[in-house]
Specification:
The protein has 16 helices and 18 strands. By secondary structure, it is of the alpha/beta class. One of its GO terms (molecular function) is 3-isopropylmalate dehydratase activity. It catalyses: (2R,3S)-3-isopropylmalate = (2S)-2-isopropylmalate.
């Protein structure tokens, strides 16, 4: 057996507590992130069995899915949301867990605040009852979503039983074209592999494009790994990673940092290590992307036409059903399609760089009269940066308002729902039927494409509005 290891192998193998022959591994979990939706039943299980949380200091709770994004100082009106938020607050207090609820300065989307406060670190194992936990893989961590029963298991034991996934490396080489963002890179990869193309794999992203990306861009790419069926995605940590992590509240300091760095600097794939599958893409083939259907794999370059059914994997009947839901036709151009809503935010694109990109397009322009725009920062840190950098003044001048942190219109679990039949250009991660509200129609795109739609009222190539 080769002694050469992939990045994934190094992190996984170092966390195996016990290997069960012909079964799963018992994996130690360094960080457990908790929110209000998947945790109540898990905590109830602990209570019924009289079990405590084994490592409350490794567990962090924040409210995000059910939170309103306006008037957060007022009581939450929706009774289900209010009950789930109250349950998380009470359970966190009962078990000694850090809790960042509404009104707390650290409150925000779980996959935004984790990195912001240094909870996310290279080489760690991180889980959360949320599929987009893969976001944290941008730091060279193994991060993946878990179900409610697994949330209970981690709370009780700080371990989880998992079969080791296969490994895949996706290389994107070259330099990105003008107007192409990390979101476009991810949507392009998913469009090429389909939503099941990485099923059973843990993906490492490699190549010049990812080396050149900022940490926030890497988070966006890893966030979307789950949308092509992968168990998670990760990128080898480098100097950008280390500089991002250093000095944050929960990051190691002093001698502990020196020790951590000794480990972190070993986190790369050895030359000659073998992957179960390897794919390479040319960055020059990627342009601003937009989805036209009802899964993230149904995406095209914004200048292209909607493909014919015979050119798409998955069967003509399913394809036609998707187009019927969207009220689109084979061969349609996406350019010029009218838009009703624009959503900037979510754990995919709710960071400060996303707001900088959006603002760069709308500066000096006005919001289209036919568009309702929801601009939702992923955290209070992002919200503060928007104000301190002068972005809010530019957005307000263009006719936009800033909402308060939360998951917002990514999913229909709070007040920010897109009405039936309406079209939303969304910087979030899923465009399933009803994802943003019953009957809503979602077009996934980057912050640049979202901004172009917001000021023109239709699907527009952002390169037409960018300064040369």
């Amino acid at each position: 057996m080769s002694s050469k290891k992939t990045l994934f192998d190094k992190v996984w193998d170092s966390h195996v507590v016990e290997h069960i022959e012909n079964g799963p591994d018992v994996l130690f979990i360094d960080r457990h992130l908790v929110h209000e939706v998947t945790s109540p039943v898990a905590f109830l299980g602990l209570k019924n069995r009289g079990i405590k949380v084994l490592h409350p200091e490794k567990t962090f709770a924040t409210a995000d899915h059910n939170t309103p994004t306006i008037n957060q100082h007022l009581p939450v009106e929706d009774p289900l949301s209010a009950n789930q938020l109250k349950a998380l607050e009470e359970n966190s207090a009962a078990y000694g867990i850090s809790y960042w609820g509404l009104g707390h300065e650290k409150n925000g989307i779980v996959h935004v605040v984790g990195p912001e406060y240094g909870i996310t670190q290279p080489g760690a194992t991180i889980v959360c009852g949320d599929s987009h936990t893969s976001t944290h893989g941008a730091f060279g961590a193994i991060a993946f979503g878990i179900g409610t029963s697994e949330v209970e298991m981690v709370l009780a034991t700080q371990c989880i039983m998992q079969a080791k996934p296969k490994s895949m490396r996706i290389n994107v080489e070259g330099s990105l074209n003008r107007g192409v963002t990390p979101k476009d890179v991810a949507l392009y990869i998913i469009s090429q592999l389909t939503t099941s193309g990485a099923t059973g794999y843990f993906v490492e992203y490699a190549g010049q494009v990812f080396r050149d990306m900022t940490m926030e861009g890497r988070m966006t790419v890893c966030n979307l790994s789950i949308e092509m069926g992968a168990r998670g995605g990760m990128i080898a940590p480098d100097e950008k990673t280390f500089e991002y992590v250093k000095g944050r509240e929960f990051s190691p300091k002093g001698a502990a940092l020196d020790k951590a760095m000794t480990y972190w600097e070993t986190l790369y794939t050895d030359e000659g290590a073998q992957f179960d599958k390897e794919i390479t893409f040319d960055a020059s083939n990627i342009e601003p992307m937009i989805t036209f259907g009802t899964n993230p794999g149904m995406g095209i370059g914004i200048s292209n036409d909607i493909p014919n059914a015979n050119a798409v994997e998955g069967g003509a009947a399913t394809y036609q059903k998707s187009l019927q839901y969207m009220n689109f036709n084979e061969g349609d151009s996406m350019m010029g399609k009218p838009i009703d809503f624009v959503f900037l935010g979510s754990c995919t694109n709710g960071r400060i760089e996303d707001f900088r990109a959006f603002t760069s397009i709308v500066k000096g322009r006005k919001k289209a009269a036919n568009v309702t725009a929801w601009l939702v920062p992923g955290s209070h840190q992002v919200e503060a940066a928007i104000k301190n950098e002068g972005l809010l003044a530019i957005l307000n001048e263009a006719g936009f308002e800033l909402r308060e942190p939360g998951c917002s219109a990514c999913l229909a679990m709070n007040d920010d729902k897109v009405p039936a039949g309406k079209y939303a250009v969304s910087t979030s991660n899923r465009n399933f039927e009803g994802r943003q509200g019953p009957g809503s129609r979602t077009l996934l795109a980057s912050p640049l494409v979202a901004a172009a739609a917001a000021v023109t009222g239709k699907v527009t190539d952002p390169r037409e509005l960018m300064e040369v």
